[in-house]
Structures are given as C-alpha cells and as structure tokens.
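Take our chain:
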Amino acid sequence: MTVSTLLRRFEGSDVAMTVYGPPAATVVVERLASQGIDAIWRKLPTGHQDAFVVIRRDSAFAETVPLTALQAFLCTPAIGSDDSGPPDSDPGRQLLYSALANTLLSSLTPAQLLETSREFEDRAYRVGNGTLRVSFQSLSIFRSQRARYETLASDTALDIHVYGQADWEPPTIPGITFHPLTDTALEQVWLLAFDAAGDDQNKCALVAEETADGPFRGLWTYSPRLVDEIMAAVVAVEE
C-alpha cells in the first residue's frame, strides 16, 4: 500500500456542512471549499457565541460541533513548537475530529497537520502504552518536537518509532527508536499511527502527502482495520 493508493479510496467523500453563525462565519465556508467540502452559511440571529456547524455524511446527519472548534482548525491553528506539556481535552475539537474521520481533505497546511498530530499524540499519552509510529519526512524536523516526544517517552510505556530522511544524527532517547529512511516511500509523507496496544477503541492514524503545489492532501482515521494496515505498511518500509 502506498499513501496515494490509500487516499484514492476516499476520493469523493460525501461530506457537507451547514454553518450557522454571524456574517463573519462565511470565511469558514470559503475555507471548507478549499478543502473540497461543500458548505453553506445560514445566519444565526443570536450571534457568534452560539454559532455551530451541522455535519452530514452521505446526506445523513453526522454531528453538530461548535463553530469555534472548526474555526480553530481551519483558520487559526496555533501550536507552539516547544509544546511539551500534558495533553488537554477539548470536547468540541474531539467531536470535530470524530465527525471528519475518513474524509479526504485537499489543502491541509503544516499547522493543521501539526494540530491533528497533537490530538493523536495526546491520545497516545492518555493510553500510555502501545506503539506510536511517526514520519517527520526528515529527521532534522524532529529537533523542534524533541521536548514533546521526550515527555511522551518518559511519562509512558509507549514504544515510539520515528522515521525520516537521514539529514541529522538524532540523540539516544530511551523509548524512541529512529529509522533513517533508505526508501523514498515516506519522504513526502506526514504520517502518525498509533496501535493503542491492540485496543481498537483508541487506535488512530493520520496520513497526508505533499502535493506538487505545496499543500498536503490527507485524512485521519479511527478505523482499527485501516490503522493496522497503515502500521503494517510503515513497518514494511523498514524491511
């Protein structure tokens, strides 16, 4: 399995949203269009504090999420590169990620991918054991994430594997195994997969590939079968 092959399975995902909020919320509709998602805006007289989004999949109701959660992901994701603190838990954000699972997004920014990675790293932290596999494209990128991953490794029993082009000599960190890439399969890929020590309720993965014009296209999933398939594909790269 290649990333492109995986993503092609989800092309044409039937996801639509209705954004209920003030006129300023039309910006969200425009951002959704850039991700390949059909969306419309409906005025909400009560104002921004009560704004929400209705998500439909295959024309059936899927979820209602606060507009603030969608805005934070689409418009203003803000993650510090030295974020090494304990995980947080945002119910609105978690509802959003659940509702958009297995949805192919066509124009993801590094900030959006980093925020999604944080969500899944936090899940791995809470579970506390299992295998976490992460591709940073190049190992030198890991330097900006070192403090966070040292926390993940020291506070848990996670078995962490980091992949990337061999452009930097990583330090020895207990609990983390580095894999310099000798194959090009992951060089243009942003990937994080967590097997939750076999607990299907907590498995998750993020897979995205860099496009020719800059943005990434990708998706995240909580499907145990798909997570297992992604994990196996990453292991195969090592062989």
Q: What stands out?
A: Helices lie at 3-8, 26-34, 67-74, 91-99, 110-127, 146-155, 224-238. The first strand starts at residue 15 and ends at 21. DSSP finds seven helices and eleven strands in the chain. The first helix runs from residue 3 to 8.
